[in-house]
Amino acid sequence: MSASLGDLRIVDFSRVLAGPFATMLLADLGATVVKVERPGAGDDTRSWGPPYDDRGEATYYQAVNRNKESVTLDLRTDDGVARARELAAGADVVVENFRPGLMDELGLGHEELRADNPGLIYCSITGFGAGAGAQLPGYDLLIQALGGLMSVTGQPDGEPQKVGVALVDVLSGQFATVGVLAALRHRDATGEGQLVEVNLLSSLLAALVNQSSAYTSGDVVPQRMGNAHPSVAPYEVLPCGDGELVLAVGNDRQFRALCERLGEPELGTDVRFATNTARVDHRQELREHLIRLLKARDARTWADLLTEARVPAGVVNDVAGAFRLAADLGLDPVVGIARGDGSEVRLPRNPIGLSRTPPSYRSAPPPLSEPPPVSD
């Protein structure tokens, strides 16, 4: 089966999450990715555990490094840099996420590598850009804090909360992937490579979407609201007779159907609740009514009854429950990838569906390679 990016060669100097996630997405679509790692240690995430799998390998590293080859090079040596330049000279794309300026100091910067390879796409991922924020440390938690995400996550009377995954890194990796693909499209038309720059802070500000535009367009500074939504109601977690129910009512029809199933249809035409704007204005009164009615049954029963009425509702799954749901829906969320010794690693499936050139799973996350012999 053909691959969308089967003729693409990528040299990946990045480590941890944002860069490796981007290069894994491209590798899933067929690109050959050579992952350059430090001799003896490799990517930092090789030691980020627990948890570990049954072979003692960190599951964090496995999450973003399938379909890659590993090459160890000591970039502090002339020989290591020379070998890195050879790899880049034969590549279509280079990805790196070192602190700004380091690759230039090593002789592996954008201008130097493109002098050898004018069609090269050079993707640089930083925390705060290459300007005034160049020396700031680009850690996901720090950027969740500085970038406003923690200010809108958590309970109003509680402390600011981070999201339960390094979401800024993941989003930045996706933006980097889009940038690389756009640059490749330009190169297809002109033969010209270019520099792709993505920084984590800008990625987060863009990904805050309606929370960002509330500030930029409405001069409103969003605040923490727990599980409630600033612009839609009811859109939150509510207690039932047993367990918690998630309601995500996005329009007035859904709200009327909710009230019918709850046995109090008159709420759907009550002037305080008949429109979304009115429901947002009277959200606390509405919440009290809903809690009273939801006490009659457990969350799972309500979820089934409301789903039948096409009201978006569900229970709060743990990760295992989420994978079971996806499997029950026929989404095949897990792929098994063979290792060289015949064992198998099981990883989340790439979510992109392509009818002619689907993602492929050709190799498990690679073990750390031995350094190549030093040339004479």
From TrEMBL:
<dbReference type="Pfam" id="PF02515">
    <property type="entry name" value="CoA_transf_3"/>
</dbReference>
<feature type="region of interest" description="Disordered">
    <location>
        <begin position="347"/>
        <end position="376"/>
    </location>
</feature>
<feature type="compositionally biased region" description="Pro residues">
    <location>
        <begin position="364"/>
        <end position="376"/>
    </location>
</feature>
<dbReference type="InterPro" id="IPR003673">
    <property type="entry name" value="CoA-Trfase_fam_III"/>
</dbReference>
<keyword id="KW-0808">Transferase</keyword>
<dbReference type="InterPro" id="IPR023606">
    <property type="entry name" value="CoA-Trfase_III_dom_1_sf"/>
</dbReference>
<dbReference type="GO" id="GO:0016740">
    <property type="term" value="F:transferase activity"/>
</dbReference>
<protein>
    <submittedName>
        <fullName>CoA transferase</fullName>
    </submittedName>
</protein>
<dbReference type="InterPro" id="IPR050483">
    <property type="entry name" value="CoA-transferase_III_domain"/>
</dbReference>
<dbReference type="InterPro" id="IPR044855">
    <property type="entry name" value="CoA-Trfase_III_dom3_sf"/>
</dbReference>
